[in-house]
Specification:
Order of helices and strands: HHHHHHHHHHHHHHHEEEEEEEHE
CATH topology of the largest domain: Serine Threonine Protein Phosphatase 5, Tetratricopeptide repeat
Low-confidence stretches: 1-6, 33-37, 39-48
Strand order of the largest sheet: 3-2-1-8-4-5-6-7
Number of strands: 8
Active site: 360 (proton donor/acceptor), 373 (nucleophile)
Largest sheet: 8 strands, mixed
Radius of gyration: 60 Å
CATH architecture of the largest domain: Alpha Horseshoe
Pfam families: Ank_2 (PF12796), YkuD (PF03734)
Keywords: Cell shape, Cell wall biogenesis/degradation, Peptidoglycan synthesis, Transferase
Region (Disordered): 1-63
Family: Belongs to the YkuD family.
Structural class: alpha+beta
Mean pLDDT: 85
Number of domains: 2
Strand content: 5-15%
Shape: elongated
């Protein structure tokens, strides 16, 4: 908006100049009267007031705005470990999910699970390796029954008594001889178990139920004094018998009622290789001498490393007493022997498989004539006797 200020006109200026020369009093009256006159508005152009600039906010230095961190969810409470099939070890589940054992020792439960590592841990934390169950069983006998060589070793290392029987009242080594387990037999004998320990009589039915060989089962039921070596011989366990023999088992220990030896049990089953081991041959050795008897030709010959070194005519069993064909082992030799059945002399007798038949000197007709034995001419019987050893084999063929 423009404001116009009034200015005095020319007449007024002249009057004021005239009055300026009058005495001051009059001058004052005139000025006062003049001041009362109405004033014309003056046209005065005022300079426009420059527009006031709006304050510009100062530019502050750019600030780096930190990105907001993503919201972190509250921590999930840790879940208890849970066994996963096909991922975790089965033994871990058996160790963590233990059923109610009642009065059964935890060590016995570890034996049933065949967990040798857990057995060692429990023993190292104070568990007794000989703590019996309420039924009178021991951890060692349970491990033997389950054929766990690693558990047996862990228990023996932890102080298990190798002589303490289980609920069957049988020594641990006797139980071990009823199953194939060379490592178990080795561990027991190394810890001091006697390889000549005999089965206790009577034998519990629980033990008899585990015996599959009728001859052995009959002896355990009706005979006395069966040894671990006899059990291995009856079962044809070559490795077990060899281990027992290395540990000091005696082949001269027989049953106390019927006087049967380990070789008798092996011969009954026809275990030629085992018979040779019981007779003192090394398991890795092979016989160099083989005697062959041909029933149809009524001849016999001796071969050494495949070469025939002697031959002669023979007389085998006549009708009704025929000599059975098969493969045999010479189990004993007697330079002078008298038949216990027919009470006749049989010089240079070489028994086959602990049986009643054998090779010996006798009357030879060139045809079957004996009661089952193989008769040889005296000179040939003497030579054959000097060539063959106990443990050599004889094959009788048609």
């Amino acid at each position: 908006m423009i404001v116009v200020l009034s200015q005095p006109d020319t007449k007024s200026k002249l009057e004021m100049e005239a009055l300026s020369q009058s005495p001051s009093l009059e001058k004052k009256e005139l000025e006062s009267s003049f001041s009362t006159l109405p004033k014309k508005p003056q046209k005065a152009t005022l300079q426009a007031t420059p527009p006031v600039a709006e304050p510009v906010p100062e530019k502050s230095a750019p600030q780096t705005v930190a990105k907001a961190a993503p919201a972190v969810p509250p921590p999930t409470p840790a879940r208890a470990w849970q066994w996963q099939p096909l991922v975790d070890d089965v033994n871990e589940r058996l160790r963590t999910e233990i059923p109610d054992l009642g009065e059964l020792p935890l060590l016995y439960y570890a034996v049933l699970n065949d967990d040798a590592e857990w057995i060692s841990q429990l023993i190292s934390h104070g568990a007794s390796a000989n703590e019996p169950t309420p039924g009178g069983d021991t951890p060692l006998c349970a491990a033997i029954r389950h054929m766990s060589s690693s558990s047996v070793s862990a228990l023996i290392y932890g102080g298990a008594d190798v002589q303490q029987p289980g609920f069957e009242k049988q020594p641990p080594i006797a139980l071990a001889s009823l199953r194939r387990g060379t490592d178990i037999l080795r561990s027991l004998t190394a810890a001091g178990a006697d390889p000549n320990t005999r089965f206790a009589s009577p034998v519990a039915q629980a033990v008899l139920d585990r015996v599959m060989i009728k001859d052995l089962k009959h002896s355990l039921e009706n005979d006395r004094g069966v040894t671990p070596l006899i059990a291995c011989a009856a079962r044809g366990d070559v490795e077990g018998a060899a281990e027992l023999l290395r540990a000091g088992a005696k082949t001269s220990y027989c049953t106390t009622r019927y006087k049967r030896y380990p070789i008798n049990f092996a011969a009954t089953q026809g275990y030629l290789f085992l018979m040779r081991i019981i007779l003192g041959r090394q398991p890795e050795s092979e016989p160099q001498i083989l005697v062959t008897v041909d029933l149809s030709k009524q001849r016999a010959w001796v071969t050494q490393e495949g070469q025939v070194i002697d031959t002669c005519p023979v007389s085998t069993g006549r009708e009704g007493f025929s000599t059975p064909a098969g493969r045999y082992v010479i189990t004993d030799k007697h330079r002078a022997w008298t038949s216990t059945l027919y009470h006749v002399s049989m010089p240079f007798f070489m028994r086959l498989n602990c049986s009643a038949i054998g090779l010996h000197s006798g009357y030879v007709t060139g045809r079957p004539a004996s009661h089952g034995c193989i008769r040889l001419p005296y000179d040939k019987a003497k030579k054959f006797f000097s060539l063959v050893r106990v443990g050599d084999e004889v094959q009788i063929v048609h």
